[in-house]
Amino acid sequence: MNTRQTLASMHLKTEDISRLEIEYDSGFIPPPFSHIFKIKLGFGKKFIDTQLYLEYTHREDLTEEEILDEGFTLNDDFTYQGEIPLIWEEPIKSLYAKSNWSNKKLNEEEGGIKLLVKDIHGKIVRTIPANQQDWMILAQDVIQAIYELSKKEAPLKINYLIINDQTKTSIEVQMKFSIRTVDVLIDGKQKTADWEETKKLLSNVFTPDYDYGIAKEQKPTKSGEYIECGDGFWHDTQKGLINLDQDYNAVKHIREGFHRLIE
Q1: Mean local confidence (pLDDT), 119-126
Q2: To 10 degrees, what angle do helices 250-261 and 195-205 make?
Q3: How many CB atoms are located within 10 Å of the residue 192 CB?
Q4: Which of 4, 55, 139, 261 is such that its CA lies 20 to 30 A from the CA of 147?
Q5: Is the CB of residue 199 less than 8 Å from the CB of residue 175?
Q6: How far apart are CA 21 and CA 117, in angstroms?
Q7: Is the peptide bond before 208 cis (omega within 30 degrees of 0)?
Q8: What pTM value is reported for the model?
């Protein structure tokens, strides 16, 4: 059997999948960032049986101060056993259905994601998805859903303020990963927004660097555009956000994305 046939045989019928496990290793990145996780998902009920094991690794040689200075806590490891809503089944299985598989082992230095999939007939397939980034995004979204359901974290909320001489527009975006919905308030009035499009906007929100040295805790009143990412600090999008990639203007996409929400 050639390689193409072997990779093709790794695909189980999506409708027959009863269990899917996502296992991740961050590779040789330094602590306190290095970590591993495993997500186990069981289908076939009115909910998805879910387990999460998350461990931050190689921290034994770091001081408490070094860990805290990077924005972590001394107890970032996390485990969960429970349920997530059935609304997650379709995006998980849809990604599996359109994925291609790699015939290479994971690079120990770079790390990555590998899958274990079992169907209702008992067949088990272990494989490495070629579209690693897609699976990483999905895994992070599932973890965020678990954090919300376990009350570890509240739903993500972003505030955006547009002030000019004539008007002031307030935009509040709340992402509820647990149920895959987004709530948008424009000057206090509810508006529908697309989940995937809003996720793209949020990916831009967390792309640039934020200069907390010039951020304000008071809500702005002067003309400009400002963003507050749930921590109480308002950032001027013209002065307080710094693009990290000179070839990608994330700040521009942030401003355009919030303006689209009010169109």
Answers
A1: 94
A2: 140
A3: 8
A4: 261
A5: yes
A6: 6
A7: no
A8: 0.89
